[in-house]
C-alpha cells in the first residue's frame, strides 16, 4: 500500500506531520505494509517549481493507493497563467473524486448543541456553483462589462444520480434517512433536475426514507434538531457550507474528517481550510486530518479494525481532556504536535 502525502499550505505541514506520527504508530502496531511518499503542492511548490501543482503530480496521484491532501490557500495564489492552479479542483475533476463524505458527531463534553448529533454529509464536488470546474474550454466566471460579473453553475443528471446513490447506500447501512438539500423554489430547472434524479434513486432503496429540505431552512433545522439527521445529500456549495456548520456544532471545524471518494481512488482531506491565521504556531488541531486518515484506511483498504483503533484513540484523547486551542478558546492547550503524539501513543498502547 503506497500513499501519496501532499502537506499543502498554512497549517497543512503541521497537521500532516501529526497525522504521519499516527500513521507510523498504526503501521507498526498493526504490521501494515504501508509506505508513503511526500511531495510539495501549493505555495511551497510555487517557490520551487513555479507552479502550485508541479508536472506529473496528477499521474503520481492516480498511481497511488490513496492520497493525503493538506489544505490549500487558493486565495493567496497568483492567476493560473502565473502558476496558481487550484490543486483541489483539478484532483476532484481529473481524478473523478466526486463524492465528498463529511461526518459530524458530538462527543461527551464537546459540542455546541444540546442534542446528540451523528450525521454524514454526502456532497457532490465536481460541478455545481464551483465555476472553475464547469467548462470544457474557457473560464466559468467572466465579466461581459467592467461592472457585471457572471459565473456558470452546472448540474448534470449523471453527477446527481451517482452522488444520490452514494448517499442512499450509506444511509441503508445507518439510520435509513436521506435528507436531500436543495433550493428548487428558486433554481427550478437545475435543482429541479437534481431532485428528479434523487427521487429516481430513492425508488431503488425502499428501506430508506427520503426527505427534501430547502437549504436555508436546513441551516436552521441543523441547529435546532441536529439529532434528527442521518445522511444529508447536497450539491457542492450547499454541502460545503452545511458541513462547516455541522462540524462547528460538533465542537470545532478542526475535528472534522473528510474524504474525497471516487470509484477508483480516495483522498483524505480534512474539512477545514489552510487557517493562515494560526499557521506555523503549533496551535492547529490535527484531529480532522487524523480522522480523515482513518476514513481513507476504511474506504480504500477495508482496514476497519485499524480505522476503529484510530477513531478510538481520538475519542480516548478527547475523553481524557486533551484539547487543542480551538476546542477551549484559550491557552493553555495541547499543541498540534503533542496532540498527534498522544493519539499515536494510545494506538501503540
Ligand atoms: P482557507 O482560505 O484556506 O479556507 P480560512 O482561514 O479562510 O482558510 P479555514 O482554514 O477553514 O478558513 O478556517 C476558518 C477558521 O477556523 C480560522 O479562524 C481557523 O483558524 C480555524 N481553523 C480551521 N482549521 C483549524 C484547525 N485544524 N485547528 C484549529 N483551528 C482551525
Structural description of this entry:
It is built from twelve helices and twelve strands. The protein has helices at residues 12-29, 43-49, 57-63, 87-94, 157-172, 190-202, 215-224, 236-249, 287-301, 304-319, 325-328, 336-348, and strands at residues 2-6, 35-38, 66-69, 99-105, 118-124, 141-145, 148-151, 177-182, 209-214, 231-234, 259-261, 266-268. The chain has a ten-stranded mixed β-sheet with strand order 2-1-3-12-11-4-5-10-8-9, sandwiched between helices. A two-stranded antiparallel sheet has the order 6-7. β6 and β7 (148-151) form a beta hairpin. It is globular and about 55 Å long. The two termini are 24 Å apart. Bound molecules: adenosine-5'-triphosphate. The site of adenosine-5'-triphosphate (ATP) has 18 residues, from loops.
Which distinct ligands sit in these coordinates? Answer: adenosine-5'-triphosphate
Largest sheet: 10 strands, mixed
Strand content: 15-25%
The helix/strand order is EHEHHEHEEEEHEHEHEHEEHHHH
Helix share bin: 40-55%
Short description:
The chain is built from twelve helices and twelve strands. It has helices at residues 12-29, 43-49, 57-63, 87-94, 157-172, 190-202, 215-224, 236-249, 287-301, 304-319, 325-328, 336-348, and strands at residues 2-6, 35-38, 66-69, 99-105, 118-124, 141-145, 148-151, 177-182, 209-214, 231-234, 259-261, 266-268. The longest helix is centred in the first third of the chain and has 18 residues, at 12-29.
Amino acid at each position: 500500500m503506497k500513499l501519496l502525502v501532499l502537506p499543502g499550505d498554512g497549517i497543512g505541514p503541521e497537521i500532516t506531520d501529526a497525522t504521519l506520527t499516527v500513521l507510523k504508530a498504526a503501521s507498526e502496531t498493526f504490521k501494515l505494509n504501508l509506505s508513503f511518499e511526500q511531495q510539495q503542492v501549493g505555495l511551497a511548490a510555487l517557490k520551487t517549481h513555479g507552479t502550485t501543482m508541479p508536472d506529473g503530480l496528477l499521474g503520481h496521484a492516480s498511481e497511488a493507493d490513496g492520497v493525503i491532501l493538506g489544505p490549500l490557500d487558493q486565495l493567496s495564489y497568483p492567476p493560473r497563467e502565473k502558476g496558481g492552479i487550484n490543486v483541489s479542483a483539478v484532483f476532484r475533476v481529473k481524478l473523478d473524486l466526486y463524492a465528498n463524505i463529511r461526518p459530524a458527531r458530538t462527543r461527551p463534553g464537546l459540542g455546541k448543541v444540546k442534542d446528540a448529533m451523528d450525521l454524514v454529509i454526502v456532497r457532490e464536488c465536481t460541478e455545481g456553483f464551483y465555476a472553475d470546474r464547469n467548462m470544457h474550454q474557457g473560464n466559468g466566471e467572466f465579466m461581459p462589462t467592467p461592472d457585471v460579473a457572471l459565473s456558470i453553475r452546472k448540474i448534470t443528471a449523471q453527477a446527481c444520480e451517482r452522488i444520490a446513490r452514494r448517499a442512499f447506500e450509506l444511509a441503508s447501512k445507518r439510520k435509513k434517512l436521506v435528507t436531500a438539500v436543495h433550493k428548487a423554489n428558486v433554481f427550478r430547472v437545475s435543482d429541479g433536475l437534481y431532485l428528479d434524479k434523487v427521487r429516481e434513486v430513492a425508488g431503488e432503496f425502499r428501506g430508506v426514507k427520503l426527505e427534501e429540505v430547502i437549504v436555508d431552512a436546513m441551516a436552521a433545522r441543523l441547529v435546532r434538531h441536529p439529532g434528527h439527521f442521518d445522511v444529508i445529500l447536497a450539491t457542492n456549495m450547499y454541502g460545503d457550507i452545511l458541513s462547516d456548520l455541522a462540524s462547528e456544532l460538533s465542537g470545532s471545524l478542526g475535528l472534522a474528517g473528510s474524504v474525497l471518494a471516487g470509484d477508483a481512488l480516495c483522498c483524505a482531506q480534512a474539512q477545514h481550510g489552510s487557517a493562515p491565521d494560526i499557521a506555523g504556531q503549533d496551535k492547529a488541531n490535527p484531529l480532522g486530518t487524523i480522522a480523515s486518515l482513518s476514513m481513507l484506511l476504511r474506504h480504500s483498504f477495508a482496514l476497519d479494525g485499524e480505522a476503529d483503533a484510530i477513531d478510538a484513540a481520538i475519542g480516548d484523547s478527547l475523553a481524557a481532556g486533551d484539547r487543542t486551542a480551538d476546542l477551549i478558546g484559550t491557552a493553555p492547550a495541547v499543541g498540534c504536535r503533542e496532540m498527534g503524539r498522544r493519539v499515536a501513543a494510545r494506538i501503540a498502547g
